[in-house]
Amino acid sequence: MIRRRLFALAAATVAVATTLTACGGGATKTELAGSWDEIVAAAKDEGSVTLYSTHSPDNLELLKKAFEKKYPGIKLNYVRGTDADIVPKVETEIQTGQGTADIQMATDAAFMGNATKQNWNVKVVGPSFDNKDYNRSESIMDGKWFLSSATVFGYGWNTSKLPKGLHTYEDVLAADTKGGKLGITNPAGIPTYVDMYRRIDADWGGGFVEKLAAQKPRIYPSAVAIDQAIASGEIWGSPTVGTTMLDTKASGAPVDFVVPKDPFGVPWYSQVLASAPHANAAQVLADFMVTPEGQAAISHNYVAALPGIDGTGVPGSDLLAQDIELPDPKTLDQDSVNEYQKQWESLFQS
Q: For the domain 15-150+266-324, what is the CATH code?
């Protein structure tokens, strides 16, 4: 499931993490300056930049601190939610011309293709995109969507509840994990999760999802929520928890995490929005996100888009974000996503 990506994209309740100064009607849009030095100077004059993202809140806070340390004159605001939360918000801002977001970080492949087709984004111009370690040809789509980070889903568990752990899908389906002891994510409105369930059903043996439903797991809105539930002992484990569990483990929580033989991975791509009110600060943030400092922050305990970044990646692996493919957007059109959601609900919520 983790494999070299065929680099083609067919054209086919939001949580506010910091106080936003222009959350209502959007800010006055600025124009992009000329040279890179002029762009940085103009970004400092703009004074702030806003990122909408589905990434971990902890990583967004790390990014904020690292960016503001590098550029103390530019405040980074961020809004965190799922793609189901953020995509409609971005679409509304673009269509009304009342932009608040400067950059969007997303995982929805179908939306990415549509955004580019509709010219909702602009090309990135920062010098860091030409770093040979970033591998521009493998990392940027149409000069606009740039690879920013990735995650791998695996087995996570509470070591007090499951001292032997979860190491195979047979462990996940064992008798002692029945009756609300496992946690899973609801794919409602999130094509990435639809793709995940389809893939693990195929890669972990036919009928795995149906067997998982028979365990009567608890349902959560995100992998982050599952991580927290495992740490607290609310649930015992999950077959679809993210690498944030490594950070939870490092903090002293009674949890552990392993990557299965055929893991499911998700890349994050980011776009500078055509409706960005801070056109220069948006480019400066985009550039920073793919520097070693930016990757150490946004990809901490995730999979980085640069090699050799301490605190990133999967233990025992040299996996990079470039190795994790986007799903085929043709398989994730709205009708097929809605149809799968109905099937999923009939299994897990009937």
A: 3.40.190.10
Q: Where in the chain are all domains bearing CATH 3.40.190.10?
A: 15-150+266-324, 152-264+332-348
Superfamily of domain 152-264+332-348, CATH level 4 = Periplasmic binding protein-like II (3.40.190.10)
Residue 102, pLDDT above cutoff 90: yes
- As a whole number of angstroms, the distance between CA 135 and CA 129 comes to 8
Tokens standing for residue 42:
């103009």
Amino acid identity of 42?
A: A
Q: Is the pLDDT of residue 17 over 80?
A: no
pLDDT in tens, 316-342: 778 899 999 888 888 888 889 999 999
Model confidence at 18, pLDDT cuts 50, 70, 90, reads very low
| The token pair that represents 279 in the structure block | 């056109």
* pLDDT tens digit sequence for 255-264: 999 988 777 8
Question: Which residues, including other chains, have CB under 8 Å from residue 163's CB and lie 6 or more apart?
Answer: none
Name 303's Cβ contacts closer than 8 Å, sequence gap at least 6.
149, 150, 151, 152, 243, 265, 312, 313, 314, 319, 320, 321, 324
Residue 160's contacts (CB-CB under 8 Å, 6 or more residues apart) are 233, 254
pTM of the model: 0.80
Distances (CA, A) of 109 to 61, 312, 331: 25, 24, 10
Q: Which amino acid is at 263?
A: P
pLDDT band at 27 (very low <50, low <70, confident <90, very high): low
* Strand intervals (E) in 144-295: 145-158, 183-185, 218-220, 237-241, 255-258, 264-273
Helix (H, G, I), strand (E, B) or coil at 169: helix
118: number of Cβ within 10 Å: 13
Q: Residue 218's CB: how many other CB atoms inside 10 A?
A: 17
